[in-house]
Amino acid sequence: MLLDRIREDAVANRLHALRIEAPENRSLASVLAPQLRSALLKLSNKEAVKNAAQRALRALAGFVGALKMKHQDIEVVLDFDPEPGLADNGDLEADLQDLFEVVGTAAKADGSCLVLFVDELQYVKETELGALITALHRTAQRRLPVTLIGAGLPQVRGRMGKAKSYAERLFEFPEIGTLAPDDAKLAIAKPAIDEGVEIESSALDAIVSQTQCYPYFLQEWGKHVWDVAECSPITVSSVEVASEQAIADLDKSFFLVRFDRLTPAEKRYLRAMATLGAGPHRSGDIAGVLNRRVTSLAPTRSQLINKGMVWSPSHGDTAFTVPMFDKFMLRIMPGNEWR
Fold first, then answer.
1. Taking the CB of the first residue and of the last residue of the chain, which one, N or C, has fewer CB atoms within 10 A?
2. Are 204 and 225 in contact (CB under 8 A)?
3. Domain 181-252: assigned CATH number
């Protein structure tokens, strides 16, 4: 229903979408400024809100100019002179509040809404995340149409709560994880049925078991099962062959990309986790496998959380962020030479 409403608003030109993928090594301001510029330039072409939009562009010019010394990765060209005293203090938290307020005022005058769609939200630095939350809090208090729809790994809720304690009151945090088994089966069976192909119940059970109902893995297994099967109905034997191919492909791409980002110490930590199974695992148990003190491993664990490799479902627990990574670690670091 929400996505349908967003599409309707977009069609009616009432929604200005800022699509951002938060990178690990760039500032929030550097990815936000170009998107805001584009949205405000479109608004400035409307005579009824031209003045409000141009003031917002002047605020953006001040915002960019003041922060360029701290964030040298900001690259955006603005043809508007800053308005002295407006979003130009050089303090991200203060300036972003001022900027969002004038941007929201322009959107309100237009009868539209500005929506920030931010993917990989877990990569936004804590101080920048706090500034973003504060700015959105300001617009909510002023009843201005600026909002955020973010997506990220499970640690996002905890990081937002740590950045600003009131974040959990300001936002909703729906969890989008693995599918229910019946939904996972439907995701595989229905496209096949639509093409006139049936899948045996036992074959569906095998796919659900292998993929652990993880949506991306369901896509991979669905692709390989379809390529392997020679006739309808698709059987367990086809799933067995497809599973080998799917796992090999995941090892070469999905899993390996994550593995290659790790330091030797981080790889050993994850390998120790894999020795214990899928998890989650207590920090003390992982330290025990490595014959180390928990406190000495805390920096490594923190780095892995920041990289999105693991998360903490509860205090003292550590879990992989994607299923089957434990088995991959056993395959890529076999034996005991990794210790």
1. N
2. no
3. 1.10.8
Nearest to 33 by CA among 84, 85, 73: 73
Q: What is the pLDDT of residue 256?
A: 96
Give the integer Cα–Cα distance in Å for 153 and 146: 23
Q: What kind of architecture, by CATH, is found in domain 263-332?
A: Orthogonal Bundle (1.10)
Which residues make beta-bridge pairs with 18? 116
Q: Which residues pair with 15 in a beta bridge?
A: 113
pTM: 0.78
Query: What's the rounded Cα separation, in Å, for the pair 290 and 35?
Result: 46
Number of H helices, E strands in the chain: 16, 6
Spatial strand order in the sheet of 281-282: 281-282, 317-320, 310-311
Cis peptide preceding 145, ω within 30 of 0? no
Domain boundaries, the chain: 2-170, 181-252, 263-332
3-state SS assignment for residue 124: coil
Model pLDDT for residues 170-180, shown as the tens digit of each residue: 898 888 889 99
pLDDT digits (tens, 9 = 90+) for 296-331: 999 999 999 988 899 988 888 999 999 999 999 999
Contact call for residues 35 and 117 (beta carbons, < 8 A): no
Rounded Cα distance between 72 and 141, Å, is 32
Q: Domain 2-170 - what CATH class?
A: alpha beta
